[in-house]
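I hope you will forgive my troubling you with a question about protein structure. I am sending you one protein, given as its amino acid sequence and as whole-number tokens for its backbone shapes. Thank you for your consideration; the sequence and its tokens are set out here:
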Amino acid sequence: MSPDESQISCYCLIPHRSQHSLLARRAGEGYQCPSVRLPKLRLDFFLDYVPAIRQELRRETSLEVTVLRHLQDWDDVQVCVLEVHSDCDGLPAGYFWLDDQEEIAWADELSAQAWQVWKSALPTEDASMLAPWEHAGWFAEAALWVQSRLHEAGYALIGPIEQLKGAWSWSSLLKAETDTGTVYFKADYQRPPQEAAVVLKLAERWPLNVPQILASWPERGWMLMPDFGGMSLETLKTSDYLSAVSQFAQIQRSTASNLRDWKRLGCPDMTPHTLLRLTERLLADTDVLCGGKDGLSLKEATELELKLPQIKQMLNRLACSALPSTISNEDFRAGNAAVRDGVCLFYDWSGTAMTHPLFGINYFLNRMVRTHSEDRFRWRNDLEDTQRRELASVFLSEWADDTKWGQLVAEFWLCRRLCPLYEAVRCYCDLPFVGTVSPWGAGTLRNIPYSLRSLIAALDYRPKKLTLDRVSSTAH
């Protein structure tokens, strides 16, 4: 990869399997920490860089590694720690295992800083705040479980089990090739509900719309799935989007009659009354609200407090809705949907909650790729483009028998304006499970005041409420 193609650098701390030495390469009179240069991705989530990091390090060092933890985010420079799974001998020329207890003569400032970040984290790191897959030894245990379950299911491995995503708090994804196709292993984070339990429950009614599970270990949040194929909804045309949001609304509607079952699975209550209580709790938590350089200013916190009666009024209106509460996939977006044979399959159900059904469609619309010059704020408040208005109309039409159309549209706009609040509260509820030390946890914390600033602006803004027309079920 040539330097002009690379936009980020990742410095990689790679301890020897004995844990007493660290991999380095000779650079003049000193040493450098191994690093890779990678093209910046559109969404720029570190977990999506994991395969490229592993591939580049395999090419450079001949070592088989997995990425354990993301330690530091310095804009276009990242720092991570890895685990070695192959023989540590036979390194390429220029690479050495150095005693990590001694002062190392680093040849560049970034290598020295990366090493210092790692050394500083070791004695202070709270192991309870690390995800299971961020601990050395977890990958080997998970790989053994995958091998055993595949053997029981009659699948034969024809290649190694590879790490696809990891180094963050929410999940770990592994991939393997078998004699009957690709399979995926996913481990979910610790916040209830466990995704495997949600998918298995949905499969009772909607088996074609959720991933097939070959094996699961719900207590550990583990599940094994065959590749479900199809094409990502993101790459398809508007008609496929229309069918997808219609199908998702039908799935949501079907869950309204058995919310007790979803509560027993651990789906958190994010219905309007509970959302209000959580909002009041968040506004009283000044450490989260105003702490750090990204926290709200006193003026912003005061402004938000003054808007609390307006927020209460809006949430109380939603609480009186004729629409039933349902479950909602908290990451419902085109990137988590695939279409095969005209049927849309929805995946990534971790974090599923019970809530007002119109929050989910607004999340979906907000996560669509902007196709023209609207700024981010207007994109998330208005619906000036024809495609998203059509999607909203189709989704709402699935609920049109529950209430008057005008009331339905009014609740849609209420949810739209309250989306930043929903996001802030969701992140607040995530903090006990992701911590605030890792870059991902710190980003979750920063997202709270960011979302609340967006809420203040949204409550002051009057969106262009363009016409949303009811659509017959045969029209899409």
Summary: The domain at 132-226 is CATH 3.30.200.20 (Phosphorylase Kinase; domain 1). The radius of gyration is 24 Å. Residues 1-5 have pLDDT under 50 and may be disordered. The chain has three domains: 7-125, 132-226, 232-460.
